[in-house]
């Protein structure tokens, strides 16, 4: 903050400047002025937070300075000084928005109290601004989510009367009339890399929607002009209003630009299916179901492409996956513990899918579900406690986004095959392979994120079932094991190295040393420093 002192008497300015330790109140710079006009110039250039000004000055008074500041710089707080004790001055000053009013000669204690009062007011206003900005962000986020959920409800057939829907739509700034002609665009992100998570998928989706907003409307607005959502199959759905017969070609052209931009700058490929023109809101549900079924059943896997339902045809192109159902069946190979052959067969199936010029999204899912059924059956037959946890994981059927490529199917199946192969050679009384995998991952990644979600991703198990499984197999919770491992490593580093406690905290996964010290004290009943001193 900066403060401006205004008085036509030089000795008063010097007294004000030298009497108070302004830096202790947060003022980094002090400005002085002997006239109102000069003070106004300074206030326009600097970052002035507080003005202390005399009332009676030649040419223009402090009251005039106050009035001008209230009009042009209302955030500046003003303290008025006067050698006159007439109450009328005080009334005018307070009426014009002065924060305080002091009489000359100035008493240091009174001035300090006045400054404190001003700072309290500044802090309150700053907090109000923060609260207001937070409330706006919450409102924006809430409005965006409400728009998404409403569209999802409508896509899945939820019914409203026209009046009810209008009352919901209007406050959400959705620029579509109930009987307006629209086109539904269904977008699939085709290439998801092996390291991508659900958060990455959501980030790509959000970025693609922002790019579409710029292409169609030349700017990104809040809430967005395009009404969109991500459905349960992880398709991006956009409802695009049309106003004339040529709009369809315009939409196609913009979406082709979107494909090029996403491919060039995000290094991702997308496929887009456009519905025929339909009437909102009577036909939205039925057109969505038709578009979804068409995409899953008929869309040829051709990244960086745009298709329309009336033009895509797969007659004579669709070919079944012959390798998937060859004899002996994959399940028979599993039952005979012929896991190397299982791996070879799955590779052959995925190779066939990769080299097919017309495989569909549904074929990819067909393979995943078939393999899932085989692994589930074998886990029941063998009584494998690890695999039994996978069976009950219904969230698997809502996680198709992780199988957008054959490489991901291959990685997932290989992890399970390796688990079965190793379990055959293991002593049943020892730790299972999955538990050793979990513990090794924790030990190797203590300095990074060893959350339940990250560990689950590493061993291809849902976090809930992984937690339950670990407790069942070891008798302790996974979080307890992570804490124990961190504390043991921390005690080793404290005893055998000269590293700083802050560095040790980070090395065992705690970014805040204070939090690490508190946990260490709870675990060992002493502080890290005392622990080190006692052992050296």
Automatic annotation (TrEMBL):
Residue ranges of coiled coil: none
Modified residues (4-aspartylphosphate): 54
Domain HTH araC/xylS-type: 436-534
Main location per the UniProt record: cytoplasm
SUPFAM superfamilies from the UniProt entry: CheY-like, Homeodomain-like
Every Response regulatory domain range: 2-119
Keywords: Cytoplasm, DNA-binding, Phosphoprotein, Transcription, Transcription regulation, Two-component regulatory system
Localization of this protein: Cytoplasm
UniProt entry tagged with the keyword Transcription regulation: yes
Short name of any one Pfam family annotated for the protein: HTH_18
Protein name: Response regulator
Originating organism: Metabacillus bambusae
């Amino acid at each position: 903050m900066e403060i401006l002192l205004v008085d036509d008497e030089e000795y008063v300015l010097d007294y004000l400047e030298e009497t108070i330790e302004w830096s202790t109140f947060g003022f980094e710079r002090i400005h002085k002025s002997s006239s109102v006009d000069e003070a106004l110039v300074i206030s326009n250039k600097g970052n002035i937070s507080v003005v202390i000004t005399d009332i009676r000055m030649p040419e223009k008074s402090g009251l005039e300075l106050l009035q001008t500041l209230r009009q042009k710089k209302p955030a500046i707080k003003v303290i008025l000084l006067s050698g006159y004790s007439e109450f009328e001055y005080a009334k005018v000053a307070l009426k014009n928005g002065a924060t305080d009013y002091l009489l000359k000669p100035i008493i240091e204690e009174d001035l300090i109290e006045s400054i404190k009062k001003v700072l309290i007011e500044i802090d309150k206003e700053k907090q109000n601004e923060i609260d207001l900005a937070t409330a706006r962000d919450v409102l924006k986020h809430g409005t965006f989510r409400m728009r998404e959920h409403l569209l999802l409800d409508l896509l899945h057939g939820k019914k409203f009367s026209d009046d009810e829907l209008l009352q919901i739509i209007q406050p959400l700034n959705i620029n579509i009339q109930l009987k307006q002609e629209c086109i539904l665009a269904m977008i699939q992100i085709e290439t998801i890399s092996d390291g991508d998570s659900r958060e990455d998928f959501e980030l790509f989706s959000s970025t693609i929607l922002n790019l579409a907003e710029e292409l169609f409307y030349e700017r990104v607005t809040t809430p967005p002009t395009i009404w969109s959502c991500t459905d349960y199959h992880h398709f991006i759905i956009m409802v695009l209003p049309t106003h004339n017969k040529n709009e369809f070609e315009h939409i196609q052209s913009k979406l082709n630009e979107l494909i090029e931009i996403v491919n060039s700058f995000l290094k991702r490929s997308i496929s887009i299916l456009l519905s025929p023109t339909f009437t909102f809101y009577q036909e939205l549900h039925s057109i969505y179901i038709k578009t979804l079924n068409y995409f899953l059943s008929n869309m040829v896997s051709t990244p960086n492409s745009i298709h329309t339902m009336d033009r895509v045809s797969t007659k004579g192109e669709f070919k079944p996956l012959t390798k998937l159902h060859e004899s002996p069946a994959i399940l028979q190979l599993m039952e005979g513990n012929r896991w190397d052959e299982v791996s070879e067969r799955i590779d052959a199936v995925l190779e066939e899918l990769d080299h097919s010029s017309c495989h569909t999204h549904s074929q990819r899912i067909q393979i995943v579900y078939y393999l899932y059924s085989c692994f589930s059956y074998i886990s029941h037959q063998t009584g494998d406690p690890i695999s039994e946890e996978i069976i009950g994981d219904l969230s698997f059927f809502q996680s198709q986004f992780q199988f957008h490529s054959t490489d991901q199917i291959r990685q997932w199946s290989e992890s399970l095959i390796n688990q079965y192969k190793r379990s055959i050679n293991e002593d049943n009384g020892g730790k299972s392979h999955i538990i050793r995998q979990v513990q090794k991952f924790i030990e190797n990644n203590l300095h990074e994120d060893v959350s339940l979600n990250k560990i689950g991703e590493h061993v291809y198990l849902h976090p809930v079932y992984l937690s339950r499984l670990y407790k069942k197999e070891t008798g302790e919770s996974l979080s307890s094991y992570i804490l124990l491992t961190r504390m043991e490593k921390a005690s080793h580093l404290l005893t055998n190295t000269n590293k700083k406690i802050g560095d040790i905290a980070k090395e065992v996964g705690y970014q805040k040393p204070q939090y690490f010290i508190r946990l260490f004290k709870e675990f060992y009943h002493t502080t890290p420093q005392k622990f080190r001193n006692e052992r050296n």
